[in-house]
Automatic annotation (TrEMBL):
Class in the EC hierarchy, top level: lyase
Lineage, top ranks: Eukaryota, Fungi, Dikarya, Ascomycota, Pezizomycotina
EC annotation from Swiss-Prot or TrEMBL: 4.2.1.130
GO molecular function: glyoxalase III activity
A cellular-component GO term for this protein: cytoplasm
Record keyword Lyase present: yes
Gene3D superfamilies the record matches: 3.40.50.880
Listed name of the protein: D-lactate dehydratase
Organism from which the protein derives: Fusarium sporotrichioides
Keywords per UniProt: Lyase, Stress response
Length: 469
């Protein structure tokens, strides 16, 4: 097979010269990374195509010449990332259109991060009687059309076939692959396990794509092949920290970050081989007074907290603002808390955007105690619905707030309790019989813990879910 292939790709009304790398294909969708063909713009004075590393996902409905029996409708999706440039902040968004061939009936965009122009989400129905679809108003484009594109990599993923049952897996490091007939040729990699002739599966570490992993599946079938690709999230976690502080217990103490709710998951995640970062909305934190008392902080935990040169303290004391982080680098998000999280988490837009992108990229989102306050305005980018809608969660009980005799003070903050957030957003709230029992809930890739005693077990459950992705 030639290393260069020219094809026509259905795109919003782009003009110019384009290259594309295919990073995934199956019978229902093909994923391209689209770039300008810069070799055809020889000088800086030349206007290029103004497209840089856009992810485009289309289905067989978008083929310029339809195959027999192919659908004529489907979803066009793109993920756009604008890097910071000339003092301007970068931004990213996901957009999709419901398509009937090259006609977009309705388009939706979801702000992943930093994109003030579009707001959080926006829907663009096609205007009756106009020549322009929703993408025109959303990004300045006209109708969709088939555009010549040079495929420089990944041609092998274009083969399709009927899927058969998997038989085994193998792990490899990154390297070149090619296919010919039903033979897979692998170069520059180390095969860890040998598999059967029917299915070959690889886990490939690819640092260039979000430091994640790609799962390749190759099916041998008479007369045809199929390669399927699935990105696995990066083995890097973000523990979110509340920036808020407030007086509590009638002014006798100050609430902020509940120390063990960040320290315990930090220990679990680092022990599991994760690179772990800590961040708050403002880059600052206040330690919760109660969390530093002997009932909650003692032994090794106290030693770690007291040692300002411990890795945990260095990361906590020098953490950055959430807005300064690249959300694509994370495969696991863990919302630590403290009562103060009820104040800032509901409107912590940058932390929420990181959690949303982790979720959209197939990662794990988790929280403990008052951490579910982060869900108050956290939208699932794949559905435009609240991320916890229809899911089972837990968190600090309203009974515990009453037992601690602080409900009136919490109400003075104008904050929702965790159970109230769950009810408002259509989640199913669950709890242990005791308000201080170690208890957590796993619902798919969503993992939540009830109280400080649950911080470690919640992190362990989140790791277990991650390992199965």
């Amino acid at each position: 097979m030639s290393s260069i292939t020219t094809t026509s790709l259905l795109l919003p009304q782009y003009s110019g010269y384009f290259n594309a790398e295919i990073i995934g294909a199956n019978p229902t969708a093909t994923t391209f990374i689209l770039d300008c063909d810069y070799e055809k713009y020889p000088t800086e004075d030349d206007e290029d195509c103004y497209v840089t590393s856009q992810t485009i996902i289309v289905g067989p409905w978008a083929d310029k010449t339809l195959s027999p029996g192919a659908p004529t409708t489907g979803i066009f999706r793109k993920i756009y990332v604008q890097e910071p440039e000339d003092g301007d902040d970068g931004y990213s968004f996901s957009a999709q259109c419901e398509m009937s061939r090259d006609y977009a009936s309705i388009c939706t965009t979801i702000n992943i991060g930093g994109n003030g122009y579009f707001g959080e989400t926006a829907t663009f129905p096609r205007s009756t009687g106009t020549a322009y679809d929703g993408f025109y108003r959303m990004g300045g484009w006209g109708d969709f059309d088939w555009v010549p594109v040079t495929i420089t990599k990944g041609q092998k993923y274009l083969a399709t076939a009927t899927e058969v049952t998997a038989t085994s897996d193998a792990e490899v490091t990154s390297g070149a692959t090619s296919t010919s007939g039903h033979v897979v040729v692998i170069t520059g990699i180390k095969v860890v396990a040998v598999v059967g002739l029917i299915l070959l599966t690889f886990l490939v570490d690819v640092g260039a794509i979000g430091q994640g992993r790609i799962r390749f599946r190759y099916w041998k079938n008479p007369g045809a092949n199929k390669v399927q690709i699935k990105m696995s999230p990066p083995r890097r976690a973000l523990i979110s920290i509340t920036s808020a502080s407030a007086s509590l217990f009638q002014g006798t103490e100050t609430t902020g970050l509940f120390i063990s709710e960040a320290l315990h998951p930090y220990n679990v995640l680092t022990a599991a081989g994760f690179e772990v970062d800590l961040a708050s909305e403002t880059g600052t934190y206040t330690p919760d007074w109660l969390s530093q008392q002997p009932d909650f902080l003692n032994g090794d935990d106290l030693a770690t907290w007291s040692n300002t040169n411990s890795e945990f303290r260095k990361k906590l004391d020098n953490m950055v603002k959430a807005s300064e982080l690249d959300a694509s680098k994370y495969g696991l998000f863990y919302a630590s808390a403290g009562h103060a999280a009820l104040i800032d988490y509901p409107t912590a837009t940058h932390l929420q955007k990181i959690a949303a992108q982790v979720w959209a990229n197939g990662g794990v989102v988790s929280s403990v105690c008052h951490g579910p306050a982060i869900f108050a305005n956290l939208i699932d980018p794949t559905t435009n619905e609240p991320l916890i809608k229809g899911k089972r969660i837990t968190g600090f009980t309203t009974e515990a707030e009453i037992e601690m005799k602080i409900m009136e003070e919490l109400r003075s903050w104008g904050s929702e309790m965790v159970e109230e957030v769950a009810e408002r957003l259509g989640a199913v709230y669950e709890r242990a019989p005791g308000i201080w029992d170690d208890f957590h809930v796993v619902d798919g890739r969503l993992v939540t813990g009830q109280n400080p005693a649950s911080a470690a077990s919640t992190a362990e459950a989140a790791v277990a879910v991650f390992e199965k992705l």
